[in-house]
Structure formats: C-alpha cells, structure tokens
Design goal:
Blueprint: H1 2-18, E1 36-41, E2 56-59, E3 85-88, E4 96-103, E5 112-128, E6 132-139, E7 145-146, E8 158-161, E9 165-166, E10 174-177
Parallel strand pairs: 1-10
Antiparallel strand pairs: 1-3, 2-4, 4-5, 5-6, 5-7, 6-9, 8-10
C-alpha cells in the first residue's frame, strides 16, 4: 500500500510540474513602440542629408532634453547630437507632442530653438505575454507636423511628412530642411 501511495504522490508531483511554462522573456529583436524618425536635409540641395551642429531636443513640459548618448555622463554632451537623423519618442497619453529643437545648444550666444508640434492618434497592439503591448502612431490631418510661422529667427526652412503611419523605426517619417 505504501508503494502505491508513493507512486500516486510521484505522479501528482510530475503532473503539477508539467503544467509549468518557461519564463517568458521578451526578445531584444521584438519591435516595441516606435519613435518618430526625423532626417535633416540641405535646403539648397534637397537630396543631400545634412548633419546638425549640437542639436538638442526637449519635449515641452519635460525637465530634461532627450538623451542621445546614454553612456556619456560628461556635462550636457549626452543631450546633444550632430547627426543627420534623430528618433524622438511621442507621448502615449494624448494626441500631441511638442518638441523644442535647439541647434548649437552648447553655445548660448548662437543657440537657435525652433518648435515643432506633432499631432497623432495611438493604436495599442498586443505583442505577447512577455512583451506586453506596443503603441503605433498615425499622424493626423493635412499638416500633422507643424512649426510656428511667426518665428523671425527660425533655422528650419521646411518640413515634409514622408509617412503618416509610424510602425517601425526603419524609415524616415519626417524630413526637415535647413
């Protein structure tokens, strides 16, 4: 009888462990919420990408600018880039994000700030149990990315929306000419 009881206990334990699943881990290759990709071009030669000089990008209402170089902890250099393409996160709550883009942000005497406003709707998509949800964006209206017209010292000459669906970071969504 004791042998029979041991067999039953062993079977019950075996079945209870067989119901367990591996820990869910979200793979690093899984696409998550995409950022808005902006590429910069030469206004005099529109086919040529142009690098910026010490650009910083700060969402209105946030305390600090976007961190472009997280490993660089020296001064404000982690907030500045001289690239020709940047990626900016959009707010998940709401339908508008306003950014202040400052060129030459390391020098207060020549720094120049332009503001852009991005209007969009959000669409949450279930990815998996481990990864949860991601949010895709759709730029709204005839002019979903705008800048004030009354800025007398603007450095942005023109902007063009390339695609209204923001689902990946593999393409340019907005082109800015300066």
């Amino acid at each position: 009888m004791k042998k029979f009881l041991n067999i039953i206990v062993a079977v019950v334990i075996a079945f209870s462990f067989s119901a367990c699943e591996k820990d869910d881990i979200c793979a690093s290759t899984t696409q998550t919420t995409p950022r808005l990709v902006i590429s910069f071009f030469d206004r005099d030669n529109p086919d040529v990408e142009k690098s910026l000089s010490r650009l910083s990008a700060k969402a209105v209402g946030e305390a600090e600018p976007i961190v472009f170089f997280p490993d660089n902890l020296i001064g404000n250099e982690r907030f500045q880039t001289s690239a020709n393409t940047i990626s900016l996160p959009l707010r998940l709550t709401g339908t508008e994000t306003v950014y202040e883009l400052t060129q030459n942000s390391d020098n207060a005497t020549i720094a120049n700030t332009d503001t852009i406003t991005i209007n969009y709707t959000t669409n949450q998509i279930y990815v998996s149990r481990a990864c949860g949800y991601k949010t895709n964006f759709r730029l709204n209206g005839e002019n979903p990315v705008t800048r004030p017209i009354n800025d007398t010292n603007e450095w942005i000459n023109n902007l063009i929306v390339e695609t209204t669906n923001i689902e990946t970071e593999n393409e340019t969504h907005v082109k800015i000419y300066f």
